[in-house]
What does this fold into?
Amino acid sequence: MSERPVLGIDIGGSGIKGAPVDLTVGDWATERLKIATPAKSTPKNVAKIVKEIVDHFSDTIGDGPIGVTVPAVVMHGVTRSAANIDKAWIDFPIEQLFADMLGREVAVVNDADAAGVCEVKYGAAKDRPGLVLVTTLGTGIGTAILHNGVLIPNAELGHIEIDGHDAESRASAGVKEREGWSMAKWIPKIERYYQTLERLLWPDLIVVGGGISREHERFLPKLTLNTPIVPAMFRNRAGIIGAARLAHDRLVHPDPLDVTTSPGPGDDRTREAAPGPATSDREDGADGGDRARDDSSS
Ligand code: BGC
It folds into this structure.
């Protein structure tokens, strides 16, 4: 584990938040910085804020790598979807833009994947073997699948179809808030969502994160499920911590078989990072202040 803190940055709908992370303990090494997300949240506008955050922490992080979360599918450094952000993110080579702007290595990862890694390495799913499903309930529904601690990236299970509808459009915390639903009205919807997931995936553990998990006592005990379901430990801090951890694991100690963030075939970095037959066959290109209590929604 690197001794120097690694910067994690979490791009959310209302704020872009960053903090250097002490990876030995899995917590922020200093206070975080939060800057409002630009009204037009295109990759280029967001990148300017990311640069401000990197510059702010440059003394602490040195020239080390950084990890950045986005609420989108990320394959080989390219964002491939944009459910709750500007559509300009679709098929955008974001890792390249960040690397060019920042002059350092950057790992860009899906926000729920980062949260999942944080909970498995340091939080509610630490030392839990088997299949763990980490969900983040916010504007959308983010999901991460981890098996024996290993992330299976880009699970977009917030978008499974239930009763003819995209699940997150019926069951997310954002919909509850927008529609002004009570807990009692929302519980059957989120219960149906988790019941569907457990029928399809048979997880050993479900972890529930996102701002609303602060109120877990009001809804988790009321869900009828076969799978143990627990609140996340890090809630909205998980994105920053998981992004830093993933950046460290991928950029400082890369796994040669992990092609999820390396560019597609034809790029030199792919060949250097991932030699051999395992990759050569691939065709596809993939509130300010108190950190201890910070779980404001993004
Ligand atoms: C997106 C996911 C994201 C989740 C949480 C969904 O709408 O498709 O990529 O992880 O929201 O932000």
In short: Residues 71-73, 81, 83-84, 110-112, 136, 138, 140, 142, 156, 158, 168 surround beta-D-glucopyranose (CB under 6 Å). The first strand starts at residue 6 and ends at 11. The chain has two domains: 6-111+237-273, 114-235.
